[in-house]
Amino acid sequence: MRPLALVSLSLALSLTLACRNTPPEDTATVVDLDGDGIPSDVDCNDGDAAVSPTATELCDGIDNNCDGQVDEADGAGAFTWYPDADGDGFGLGAGEVVGCTLPEGYAEQGGDCNDALATSFPGATETCNGVDDDCDGEVDNGVLSTFYADSDADGYGDADSTANACEAPSGYVADATDCDDAAAIANPGAAEICDGVDNNCDAQIDEAVLITYAADQDGDTYADEATLTEACAAPQGFIELAASVGDDCDDQVTSTNPGASEVCNGVDDDCDTVADNGVKLTFYADSDTDGYGDAAMTSDACSAPSGYVSDATDCDDSAIDIFPGAPEVWYDGVDQDCSFTSDDDQDGDGHDAAAHGGDDLDDTDGACWDTCLDGASPTRAMASCAANPFLGLGATTDVYWLDPNGGDSADAFQTWCDMDTDGGGWTLVMRAVDGAFHYDDAVWTTPVLADETVFDLAAAGQSKYASFNTVPFQELRSSGTVDLTVGYAETLAQPYDNALALFLGTGFEIGSFVPYFNSIMNAFSQEWGCTSYRSYGVNQKAYLGTTFISGGSYCDWNGGARWGQRVNAYHSGTGNHAGQGWGTYSTIAYDNQRNITQLLWVR
Asked: pLDDT exceeding 70 applies to what percent of the chain?
């Protein structure tokens, strides 16, 4: 408002001066344009009734009283102005001036309590700075802050130890929430840890951080959950419950816990409240003490009770000779081996033996019961005559097909089988009818056959059959061609793969001839001076290890016979010597041979 008043006052003054400089009109009439009673030649502004020499000077920027001054200090409505050195709009009480316009360096209002500080004046906002900002006579009143001692320097203060100041004194902080100002680990911002201290100042100690422990006295990592305790550290013999694998039912035994394997010992090893569950063994009564038990009589235990065994396969626990694996006595109506199969089916082919009411013609061969390897054709060739499935069951002496090697029937051959003499099963390997086999005849020691196609036993000549080279045996027998029971039999000390293998050897003693010779010992002893005689097969010289046989050794000499003893042999003019068997008599110096008729069988 004041700048506008000054402009108006200046304008009025200029108009007044202009009026005064205007030459008066040459008139006798008094002029008063503004009607203020002051002639215009006297009025400095006859256009404004408020301006005249008689008017009161006002602070309005006009020379109201026409004294040539505008807003002089003694004018009505003049203001008091106060020195304002700091320019904050408030001046000091001393040095004030009165005038219509504000002098430079003065303020309209007084009351400043510090004219050197622009922020300090009446009505200023009191701030905490050690100064009376609002000039109320008090310094920092109402704005001081309360600070709290922080002895442990954790940033949190003790509410009971304060200091009021604008800024925190050393060792003080604005916070007052420390519950223990002597421990830096205890304050509202700390994390609660398990240490027996209220770390987070919530008036609780170790809340939510205590560790639950349980006893593990046996150290098996399974704790006894009936012994729970909360603490910051494990008591002696305790482990953290969280680390426990399970609840131990016996904390004194390491091998007893929920993770243990149940063993048969009368103890609840796996803590499932049942002892030995699932691990007891079942034992079976063995009344006949054969080591095999009765499946119908059981006892569950960790070890066999007296009179019980672990086996349950006895089919008759009242008989000590009846149990699985016992020697089976076939065809007696008793199942000795507990196989629960027919006692009349020895070969287990599902067919009872023909001799015991069944239809099996060979109860020793599981592959045969009606159509067997009976030698009736090359595809049904037998390994030997003794292998005939009907031996003793009606098989007759005749020509049969043999295939000792088995497999392909292409190498099967025919020969005679004696199915009657001494139990049967004899295979013909050589035949001689009214003929002679020389001592050195190679027919004995080569695989070459003689006339093997002749099956007429009484036909003149010699035959060496394929069976000589192929049929295994341990018994030899000689016979005539008509009465096959006539002759001698010999059981050798070892089995042979075939007759060729036997006669290629050094020889063997023919024990069956010894009693025969000794029965006619007197006649021979008169000639040779012998008291007993023995006979040798093959080459007796090689067998005895001699190269020359003197007269004193004749008692142990069969003259080189291959099989049997001398046959109408003649020696050195001393006469014929009775004898029977294969081969011919031959001395060192003489080579006499006689025709023989005989068959050679093996089994």
From this structure: 78
